Known about the structure:
Pfam families: Chromate_transp
Membrane topology: Multi-pass membrane protein
Organism: Podospora didyma
Transmembrane segments: 81-102, 122-141, 176-193, 303-320, 340-362, 374-399, 411-432, 444-464, 501-521
Region (Disordered): 204-235, 254-286
Strand content: under 5%
Distance between the termini: 75 Å
Amino acid sequence: MATVHSGRARALASRAWKVLRANWHLGVTAFGGPPVHFKIFNDKFVQRAKWIDEQLYQELFSISQSLSGPASTKMLYCINLIQDGFLAALFSFLIWTLPGALGMYGLSLGVANIGDTLPRPVYALLSGLNAATVGVIALAAVELSQKAITDKLTRLVVCISAGAGLLYNALWYFPVLMVISAVATLVSDMRWLQKPIGALVRGSSRLKPRRRRQPVRETGTEAGVGEPVHATQTSARATSYELESRIGAASQIPAAPRSDLPVTEQEGQNAPVAGTSSSASTAENEPRIVPRELQINISWKKGTAIILCFFLSFVVAMVLRSSLPSPPGPPLLYRLFSNMYLAGTIIFGGGPVVVPLLREYVVAEGWVSPRDFLIGLAMIQSFPGPNFNFAVFLGSLTAINNGYSSAVGALLAWIAIFSPGLILVHGTMGIWSAARNQRWVKSVLRGANAGAVGLIYTAVYRIFNVGYLAEGYQAGRSLGDDPWWVVVTATSYIGGRWFGVNAPVAILLGAVLGLVWYGVVGA
């Protein structure tokens, strides 16, 4: 018995060492947000370690983008889940998130002890950080758009979701936009409206009066006889012969294989027409054969049960939050937990979306001042790991400002913001093996992904409108009020887009340019 336990302990230690050796540096070196994180994961786990193949990586990318919660964290969790199981995935999550979470917790303790006003150089520094952050998030939106846009429909979905996100703001609004985006691509790809619209067009064409053709006479002879021959008779015989020829030829041509969804916009534009002999799409509707070592030992029943249990817990948490009498209402720490749980459940699009939208869950409640929120917003971009660690900063400040333990507030916010995404993606991996070949699943993911990318443009607009900090405007004002901050934003975007400047370098450059502004203008 002791031998069995020692063998299990050695095996567990070996797996833990394997996970630690592969993931230890990611939590302290992965700067730049989800777009950069995804590239790091591809280089490490697909190209070098060969833990997964490229096709499985693309599937995990779609799942991570389409479910709520931190996108890059879900991707890393799934990669380790496939490789070594649940404990390895959980261990990799801790390695990935704890360095940034501890850093943001320390920052919250420092911010809680500063006065109501900051030195003017600090405002300039933070404004420079915010301006550079806008450029970095804008670049992330453009790069994700290139992957999310596979045809004209998804291009339209990105544009409409971005525009709709600018026009209105509510807790329920963004999930509704995601659902509408998914339904739009589903209806289009399944061609559910093709027959009704075709019948409507044919019905309207029958209502139009038809013109009677007047026969045109030609002069000519038939078999040497000088009788005139009607052109309509000759045309009718030619048309009949041509139709018979086409029918006979068509009966000998096999039907073209039905292509699946386009992978890229170029592929969507160059998709072969049915009945032609051109090659089929690269996203051909073929069964996905997954190697045994890349399969997950989670049944679809267990995956479904996990998802249903999560939604049950979500409903219970929200009902308790709203049903308790107010005043006194639920305890503040429970309200903090439920707000973060709600944010982790309904926010799609990953870090670039969650950071500005958390303002509605914390600042609007009066728990954290707008100035402190913007300080954390500026600093989270220069921290490694997931942007969802911003919740640790906000939870700690909420607890401190209301007389509770900062560690308790930070821990509750950290658990609440990350749990929904990890639980949902764990359950989804159980049913994905059965659903991955369903055409409607791919359509839904395609639309939801495009809608999430559109919401990142909304985040760019909202941060731009509150990024300029000054002594008299601690709640933030538009970066467009001073052309210098627009230049900083453009510099950050152009540097990353065309000169390969990494996100941390661009953000630090923004801080330097903020101090330059203070030296030239502020002083």
